[in-house]
Amino acid sequence: MSGSEPPYTLDPFEDFCAISGHQTILLDDKLYITPGFGRVTISPTVNRTASSPWVRVIDLSRSFSLDQTASVSSVLPTSIIPVNIPNVQASAFWFDPPSSSIIYAQGVPTVEGGVIRDPSLRSFGFRGKSWIGRYDTQNQSFAPWQEVDTPFPRQNGLASSLRKVFDPIKRKGYMYGGSVQPDDGSTRIPNRQLLTYDVATMTWTNGTTEPGVFDVFGTAVPYRTGRGQLLSLIFGGNLNGAQLNMDVIYIHDTESDTWHQQRTNGPTPNGRQHFCATPITSADQSSMQIIVYGGLGSNPYSDIHSLSIPSFTWTRLEATSPLTIPGPSSRIQPTCNIVNNHILAIFGGRNLADGDTAHCDWNQNALFMYNLNERQWIFNYNASDKAAYRVPEDVYRVIGGNEYGNATLMAPSDGFDTPQLAELFAFGPQISPTIESGGPEPNPPEAGQTPRNVAAIVGGVIGGVIVVIALVLLPLLYKQFRKKKYQLYESPPNGLPPTPGVEEGTQPGVEQSLPIAEERLRLFGL
């Protein structure tokens, strides 16, 4: 490659039809997007498979229209992200607050597709290696990312899974199930694995997922209990080769390394894979909603559902989404994040309307936003609109309280399935992340800090009772007291493609490129 030639043969925005298998993190109003699997445009009716080797950035501190996402998009330069960063999907992509670093590791190799000009710089990762990106919070910028040693004894290949959680207090990341790509490039192997990454020691260890073999394509969402334990809530996808229904949540207590199951209530979504999920917490932290979008089951889905915790109650927010901007239509392997406190941001994934990527996300118009407060899709994004999240009315009608919290249903309607679960969820949520699972929690307590001071809460409650009694005794307020109950808030607070390096031939129209639920994909001409 001559010094004047760019290292890439394609433009990251103009030439890409779709991106999937990527991961996202939101830092300081910027959405960072890992490399992933791409569809690149050859002509208006033809696209082919390739890698997306860049770390993309969308600047959400600026207002824009969603048909102009490229105007606020960029890629991290090669001075920060070397050309030989691994081209992988379903990787670990975590932010560690104490070291102010991004961790990029594991993942299954993509089809390179000739995007990187120099073949010697095409990389698909190595066992025992990870990449670290140091982040300067004052300048909101990265130092050059570096490959580091992260030993993993007896690992026989890189692991991939969309079921991932990171604990910023314990500084540990967890990957559940998924598959391993052997070093020799042979067929990926499903694994009953629980991979744990320790940031402090920079090492990986391998355990076992007690329920069985979880596939790559479900999700895991973090939930911090009132006592400080981090629980992983795991659902969707396949278990032991069979499609999971969404009426059972598998729960891993990361502190005790114990497993539980809990049945859900309410109208259950259809079983599915390749969806995205992200948590958001009510203003008073009395409940957490896990927002679920899209995916593929017996059909492609474009719906939105909410799973409220700790009552484990499903609520459908939207039956379908619009087929074109501002809606995302039906998609597989998008990512979800909460931005500006109350907006569900969906990025990427492959549009299944009329076939796999028959409709392209031209010029990176692959960002879609749903205002959870207004229950509507957004066309014009207002960066200054940072209103607090309000629990949807359809949700609080079931779990009690109001749009600012005060949930009264603090357990499943039929009770928890075991006494151990009842104890785990006894104090409700402590702090819940508001970004894509696997990313950091907002303002987590420092290590060693008590997550929730139960004694203080009890004391506060007793003090509150005394005040209320005093008010009751005041004649002028007696009627008002009888008329309405005390409320906390009186006013609102302001696939994965084949083995690496193997290119697929260009074909007109759409193309089979993900070996995911292949029998189902054939139903849609994929």
From TrEMBL:
The lineage of its organism: Eukaryota, Fungi, Dikarya, Ascomycota, Pezizomycotina. Pfam families: Kelch_KLHDC2_KLHL20_DRC7. InterPro entries: Kelch-typ_b-propeller. It comes from the Eukaryota. The chain crosses the membrane at residues 454-478. This is Kelch repeat-containing protein. Residues 490-511 are annotated as: Disordered. Keywords: Membrane, Transmembrane, Transmembrane helix.
